[in-house]
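Late entry, phenylalanine complex.
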Amino acid sequence: MKEQLAKIRAEALAALEEAKASADLDALRVKYLGKKGELTAVLKQMGKLSAEERPIMGQLANDVRAALESALESTSKKLEEAALELKLKAEVVDVTIPGKEVKIGHKHPMYIALDEIKDIFIGMGFTVLDGPEVELAELNFDRLNAEEGHPSRDWSDTFYFDEDSRVMLRSQTSPMQVRAMDSMELPIRIVAPGRVYRKDEVDATHSPMFHQVEGMVIDKGVTMADLKGTLNTVVEQLYGEGTKTRFRPHHFPFTEPSCEMDVQCHKCGGVGCPTCKGEGWIELLGAGMIHPRVLEMAGIDPEVYSGWAFGIGLERTAMRRFKIADLRLIFENDIRFLEQF
Ligand code: PHE
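Prediction complete; structure with ligand written out below:
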């Protein structure tokens, strides 16, 4: 029996040395110390021993059990530590590796130009308005004195939603004049930027969708001199002091008199070059004194109040501001282009 116990002890300890996982330890515990284990089997034979031998063997068996238990314990600890070590090694983070570059976009050139325009007008006491792109023909045309049959109302020029040509994508920001007159107290000073839509083919200077900024002032005693003074100031702030402008007579149904404003060509200074097509001037915006009938339709007495309005193309302004040659670049969202501003 003594030999048996010694053998169990030696075998078990050797097996423990080989153990690689905690599952191995569980199996060894069952094999040697379990109810049907080898040590238990030896102990069951104690009855056959003499009274003198029994305590000695009992002591010996207890020693073996204690040795195995402590060996199991320490091996289990060792395995745990090894596993932790491995895990830490696998999860190591190299804090010296440079981080991933976060790409932050920036303002689109057209919105840079728009923000400049807004800032200039806000500085002069104007309010910025936002309005719907789906508009009633009543506001886009009728209330702006463009009656039935006016060429701009044609289906070949305008996107309508219904057979009766009553709901449309606005073709200009000018309906915002009417919306302001209908909803605001006099005097009024507003600018209203936004998208407008026309049935144009895409080319270097045209797009079926583009942006305008509408501007309008209504007060007592407002004259064409105010229009010219204000727009000249705006142009100098946008394009630099001393930038010359020129006002040409034009026609819009909702202004009388109407004009177009040109800026002296930034390329040739007015001599004439390919950029200004030899003109020396570049057309920038349409403007005029608000037609008395438009004021009347809004319930404003044209004998007491007068006003002026303008509409400026935003893409064109940005193209001039940043010397961009092709309108399509503004809409293509090519990062290589946009990153330059
Ligand atoms: N709405 C006109 C256009 O789109 C521009 C304009 C606005 C003209 C205001 C006069 C007054 O061409």
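The pocket of phenylalanine is lined by residues 172, 174, 252, 255, 286-288, 309-311 (CB under 6 Å). Will revisit in the morning.
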